[in-house]
Amino acid sequence: MLLLGACAWAGALAGRWAGWWALLLPVAMVVGAALGRRGSGRVWRTGAAAALVLGAVTTVAALRHDQLAGSPVTRLAAERAVAGVTGTVASDPRRTEGRFGDVVLTRLEVREVTGRGTTYALSVPVLVMADDAWGDVALGSTVRVTGRLSPADGDDLAAVLGARGPPEVVAAPDLWWDGAAAVRASVRSAVAHRPADQRALVPALVDGDDAGLDPALADDFRTTGLTHLLAVSGTNLTLVVGFLLVLARWGGVRGRWLYAVGAAGIVGFVLLARTEPSVLRAAVMGTVALFAMGTNGRQRGTRALGVAVLALVLVEPGLAASVGFVLSVLATGGILLLAPGWRDALARWLPRWVAEAVAVPAAAQLACTPVVAAISGQVSLVAVAANLVVAPVVGPATVLGLGGGLVGLLWDPAGRVLGTPAAWCVAWIVTVAEHEAGLPTASLAWGTGAGALVLLTVVVVVVALGAPYLLRGPATGVGCCLLLVVGVLVRPPTPGWPPDGWLLAACDVGQGDALVLNAGPHAGVVVDAGPDPAAVDACLDRLEIRVVPLVVLTHFHADHVDGLSGVLDGRQVGAIETTRLLDPPQGVREVDTLAAAAGLAPAPTPYGVTRVVGDVSLQALWPPPDSPTAGPGDGSTANEASVVLLVEVHGVRMLLTGDVEPEGQEALAAALPGLQVDVLKVPHHGSRYQDEDWLVSLGARVALVSVGADNDYGHPAPEALAPLAATGARVLRTDLDGDLVVAERDGALSTETR
Prior knowledge:
- The protein is α/β, with parallel strands linked by helices.
- 50% of the residues lie in helices and 18% in strands.
- Strands 17-16-14-12-11-10-25-26 form an eight-stranded mixed β-sheet, with no helix packed on it. It has a seven-stranded mixed β-sheet with strand order 18-19-20-21-22-23-24. The chain has a five-stranded mixed barrel with strand order 1-3-4-6-5.
- Strand 21 (652-656), helix 24 (662-671) and strand 22 form a beta-alpha-beta unit.
- Helix 6 (196-207) crosses helix 16, helix 13 (339-346) packs parallel to helix 17 (450-471) and helix 15 (383-410) runs antiparallel to helix 16.
- The longest helix has 29 residues, at 41-69.
- The radius of gyration is 28 Å and the shape is globular.
């Protein structure tokens, strides 16, 4: 069954990427199996079964691809037509920060579309981008809306619909959706009296509802390998259905009726957590885990895993290319195939329950490591320890949280009685995530190129094969644990970094800006803090920065200010300066809160005044002193108000431009004709919207682009960087080169990358 599951997976990928040509592969397998029939009937049967599965899934995947690619919605989207759409809301609306302000996103299963004077009946998914009027639309509702269609990224959606106005509700959700919504609301109500992190985390554990979770805490969960607790996973279903089966046994239920109870629990869980592909995937993987908990669990579990993969990709071929699906299968496979051997080795000198508690998260984490590294560019060194430490409270928190929601439907105070201990449990999880994420080497940076990932995969295979031999003796087992502890607690040195004579560093913090100017020994002026506290903190540590006399936040977008806590952590900070425009409000509030906790009061950067901070001379060229302090709340206005700094360090002139837009660039060109600099920080992560003439006229010899890999904005745009490169400037990007440094050696300007 594992072989057939692998064939199904390959068929889904082949049908998705190669279309009908992929059917040549199963035909070749049938021919090969027929030729092998003379030698062995088993070879014939295995080959024929594999070819049948491969051909069936390939056909389904190709049909699904053609269905989306050839649908009227896709054709209308290619023409960017305005259309009227009727469909069923297929996911809960989620508010997220867009380029021009907050937007609400939801998926719609379109049943009818009217465009270009023609009405079509069909069934395809689209992503709706809308305003706050869509924030409360109920899952399962049938709605009618008008908007402009545009092509979707990827091939799992037919189009993106920019909705105009609120939805017209044609039909209310079915009864079971109303019931599931009531339980979800009751779970939130059961912990509504607890602190904010606990209020957000209990619903996330129970049903994947992570709305309202602090982004900084979510980053800590990612660093410590606890992200699976924030989304619906097979663990959730195993805990909920397993507890339900225990209750059923206590109530005298036996035999086949237990299967009925389990099936009812699975259906109820799916309705509660939503019938999205990720939830269905988690439900199936959780069912595999339930099979593995019985007698002969390893054999039954691996067989069930093969069946699960086959069934999932046959029903939804798009899952084959889903990162979540890959991680679910790898984690489940690691637990089934690796954990028993590790557990038995540890059980030779540890109690069996301790051995199992260590082996299960370690095996799951190791199996997922190459994929996680490919996604995040890092390998978590604390994930096993974090999962081990929080494991005792995950089950009680999940069961008590769900119990509080169910009981709260009858009497709200009783729901809070159960919700309170659930919140106590998640308080421990929060504590573990925050403390372990702050360890010196909680995660290890790792390349995402093919060579780096192949090397990591080889290391993972070696560890997987060698672990049973290393763990069977107390000396080698304890030695491995101590080695991991030392690796986490002691930050490894970075020889040759920072390079001698460095002047400016652009930290690799993902999609955001974090720049550091060398103000003297172990001192640096920080311009922007990026989106990730851990990333900017690690960069400052690598630069050996202990004192920050000045922090300048060019504007209040999350990708420039959310990492501020990482700058403040363990360092002496003298002052925080910002732009005059106090927008967007959530960024302003976050900066004010963090500054107040550090005993600082943010102030606008003084315009036109040349100041000296250590070895750094800086002057704010923008925004002008008469610029507004309040804005309309759109992203472009906040970008336009970015602080633009002219900086000089040891005679090297640098222009740091934040995210200033073309209008501001034109105003600077008019106000400062003939401005020349040695180094340019390219505005707005290399966006295509630039005043090309002005950027080229600066005569910069080095252009730095602070940008995140595979970002959703298309940054940096080739048309923005090509003119700079044509002048002979050296263009460096953090998404390709990591940390960037400009240095001065023997009177010459040089650059280095990490």
